[in-house]
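Quick question, first post here. What does this chain look like in 3D?
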Amino acid sequence: MVFFVCEGCNETLKKNKVDAHAGRCRNCWAVSCVDCSVVFEGNDYATHTSCISEAEKYEGSLYQGDKAKPKNGKKQTPQERWMEAVQSATCPEDRKLQEVLTLIAGYDNVPRKKSKFLNFVKNSIALRDTTLVERAWTIYETAFKASAPAEASTTPALEVADKKRPIEEEASSSSVKKAKTEEEKPIKWAKLLKTALKAAERKEIDMQTLRDQILQQIQENKLSSRSEKELKKEFKAALKDSDKFAVVEVVRLQ
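> Answer (accepted):
Ran it through. Tokens below.
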């Protein structure tokens, strides 16, 4: 909030009180900013919406306040951006509208929602001219939207790393599985087939039943981690390559 001092009587004034004071103080030919001491004549003070602090003013090059803040510090809240828009809004070409903007800028917490803003203006400064109020709202809203921070266009490095990690883990997992498959001992198909057929009635079993029985045995005993499709191919090859089994409609032990 910017404060001014009357150059005629030295009274300290809020921005929204300057006009009223100038009307009753005969010696008020200008006002000066409390912080920067710049003198403003007439309505020039209305454009002065923000200023340096007293610490920055008197400490000069030794001042470490805002300069010490990190560039990536805390972002402004929407209400802070809104108040900045309210306090910096001007319309010098329209005296009536400028007076309204100046009066509103003197308040510390102007509502950001339109309905509440309209009620605030109506109750606080007793303004009934809806056209002026709407124009003031439009100026504030435009400035507020323009002050919205731009979204970052680049993907943070951490996010990129997180995306790469699952791919690397998947590749590593595939390599481990492949290595395990290569290290597995070969399945003794002949032994499994012979054992299953000896236990069967008449030493013969339907081929599909025999295959399912042996694959189930391999799975239960964890004899291989190969896929079912691969095991079926090996089963068929084992029957074909061995002369111990006769395959007609059923598989029979000779």
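The chain has three domains: 1-73, 77-149, 189-253.
The chain has a mean pLDDT of 77.
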